[in-house]
Structures are given as structure tokens and as C-alpha cells.
Amino acid sequence: MVIILARFGIISAMPVELEGFIKEYNAKELTVKGFYKVYEGQEGDNEIFMVCSGIGKVNAAACTQKLIDCYNVDYIVNMGIAGGISKELKTLDVVIGSEVLYHDFTPDTLLDKYYPFNRTFKCDEKLIAAANAVCEASPVVKNHLVGRIASGDCFVEASETKAHIRDIGGCCCEMEGAAIGHVAFLNKVPFIIIRTISDLADEDAGMSYEEFERKASEQSNRVVIGILKSKI
Fold it and tell me: Could you give the number of structural domains in the chain?
């Protein structure tokens, strides 16, 4: 008899962000209506459902809700790549989300005034601690920080957009995390966002993004595998 301690839902936007993870767990692809791609694997006594959501907030939100409804997951982990905003970050550094928010929701106070009465969604403290421990112990992760992650439906290259994200406290930017955190918050499911910097969200972002995409994805994979192996 197999005793499942916890069910983890792992979400990435793009196949490249999930490839190494699927290989690590020899995961089998499932056929489930409503998903782009979903795979099943196991880490010790923990069951893992790995999902490719597609890019952007709507895809991410729909995928997160479907994951919760279909598999009753205990934790949600979003992993992938991001653009660096903080001056402390360089390519292949890791950001562990403390909280997530939208950088393209205007005015951003509307989410405080109306349901769900939050414009920021806090990541789970236990998962943050586990991720931090993994990064500190890793010989591969040269630099990491815990900070606010900003999400929006655009690839950030303009200096004005980068300045806006910095003004609202974002240390990095991507396109799914806030939507995933939003849905997890509504469903009372603990979550965390793990991102590796693939570019510095500037006019050269397109060039460096292509170069570092796979390496950055592999870095995020390593951190999440470490979380799954730890005692949550």
C-alpha cells in the first residue's frame, strides 16, 4: 500500500521549463481534458503533478484552478525563468518569491478595494524556508534572494516598465506567478514561486533570453527538486 504524504502541483509556462523535471522523475504523461500538458511522478512519499500551463496570466490561472480541482493538491510550486529588476541580480541568480503582485493592473488599488481585498499574494513561509535552505546548500546556485515578484502580460524590455516594476517593489518580473498565487489564495492552497534570472529586462533582453533560457530553467528545476526532497 502506497501512503501519499502530500500532493505537489508543479506549474511551468513553457515545455523547456519542465523538460529536466520530467526526465528527473521519469514522469508519465496523462491525458486530461483542459490541460496543455500534464505529467505524473513521485518523490519519496510525495506525489507530483507537473503541468505546462502556456504563457500568460489567463493560461496560468486556468491551469492552477484545474490542477486544484482535478488532483486536490496540497501545495503549488511555480518554477521557471524571469527578468531581473533588482540591481542585486544577474543572470542565473535565483529568486524565491516572498509574495507576488501584478505590475500591469491599473489602478492597482482596485484589488484592495474589491474582492479578494488583496493586491499582493504571500508565498508560504515553510516553502520559502525550504527553498532558501536548498539555495544556501547548493554549490550551483551562486546567488539568491527572497523578494517580491511582479507579473504582467508583456515581455519587459522598456526602461520605463522596468522602473515602474522597481517602484512597486518588484525584484524580478515574469508573466504567470501573480495569477497562480491569486488562484492559490482563493483556494487556500499554500504556494511558492521560484524563478531563475534569464535576462535583465532591458533592451538586450531578447538576446540574453535565448542564450540563458535553458540554463535558467535547469537552475529552477534543481531548486524545486531540492524542496521536494526536504521535509516540509
Answer: 1
In terms of Cα–Cα distance, which of 145, 153, 163, 154 is closest to 85? Answer: 163
Model pTM score: 0.92
Active site residue 104: no
The answer to whether residue 210 is catalytic is no
> Residue 77 is part of a domain; what is its CATH number?
3.40.50.1580
Q: Are the C-beta atoms of residues 141 and 152 closer than 8 Å to each other?
A: no
Among candidate residues 17, 124, 174, 213, the one labeled active-site is: 17
Q: 148 is in which domain, residue-wise?
A: 6-229
Among candidate residues 99, 174, 176, 199, the one labeled active-site is: 199
d(CA 197, CA 209): 9
95-115 pLDDT, tens digit per residue, is: 999 999 999 988 778 889 999
